[in-house]
Hints:
The chain is of the alpha/beta class. The protein has helices spanning 34-44, 59-69, 110-113, 118-124, 142-157, 179-186, 197-203, 220-233, 282-294, 301-315, 327-334; strands at residues 2-6, 10-14, 28-32, 48-52, 54-56, 79-81, 88-92, 101-105, 130-134, 161-165, 192-195, 239-249, 252-261, 265-267, 271-273. Strands 1, 4, 9, 10, 11, 12, 13, 14 and 15 form a 9-stranded mixed sheet that branches. The chain has a 4-stranded mixed sheet with strand order 3-2-7-8. It has a two-stranded parallel ribbon with strand order 5-6. A hairpin with a 2-residue loop joins strand 12 and strand 13. The protein is globular, with a radius of gyration of 19 Å.
Amino acid sequence: MRIATFGEIMLRLNTQNDKRLIQSKSLEISFAGSEANVAVDLSYWGVDARFLTVVPDNTLGEMVLNDLNQFKVDTSHIFKTKEERLGLLYIEQGANQRGSKVIYDREYSAFSKSELTENYFDKAFEGCDWFHWSGITPGLNENSLKNIKLAIRSAKKNGLKISCDLNYRSKLWKYGIQPFEVMHELLEETNVILGNEEDAIIMLNIDNPGINVNKGDLESESYIAICNNIFDKFPKCEAIAFSKRESISANHNNWSAILATRNTFIESTNYEIKNIVDRVGAGDSFSAGIIYGLNTFNNDYRKTLEFATAASCLKHSISSDYCLATKEEILQLVKGNSIGRIIR
């Protein structure tokens, strides 16, 4: 299998040692972006992954390529432009009852300003079997909305399976369009829909059947109702997978997931995660795990869901956006080896 993902990659600037931004004299540098995370995670697990994006043709762009290439991501179709801005993402790590904080500085970036063509995507999708995108891209601006429409049209034309992580971001969608006004059209050709309950309710304008993550109201019947609503809206959707996060504090979460097809509904193991190192990118590792499982485990939906949930659980123990847990480590957790003993 060869998968292609498309989206913006940003320079991530992260506080350290639980400091607030206002206190910090230095910030840790890495790279971040939902679709890039999926490509890196899959490549790390041995999948042929190609990442499509736009970067400035300068040192920052070279840093992006170097970062992705170290994880063997195919960067041969990344478009370089004379636009000099690479988007920025500031993350203030939370602790205990103080939640993490994200600040975007991505307006006028090379990615958001570039106009791509259907021909670009046709060439980039050559030899690919799967296309993954997220709801972040159409939330940036009208230009990015046009680009993702072209990408989806090309993927359909070239016979690729399509997955989407709904990925609602409240700090985006500031250009006069509401998500539900465009997401129905964008998802018409999508085969696998990923995300969580909040993403689905907001992005797809679905009534909340009673889910409240802050109070721990995560009843199966509510998730079944949301999934059935989505299946009714999108006839080509074959599978839905949602992560389920119950936040006790910034450092202590319960983590599980569900997977639904038109004939099945499965719930995963529930993991209690204490002393979280970095939760950013956990949803992307869950998406990568679902894609990996659907293409590896011969329609074993239970194994697919448990692999994805375990992968995203382990991501909470790894700093930066990428889930650098090996397949072997993930499968060991699936088997129940969860006490974190030293491997000698």
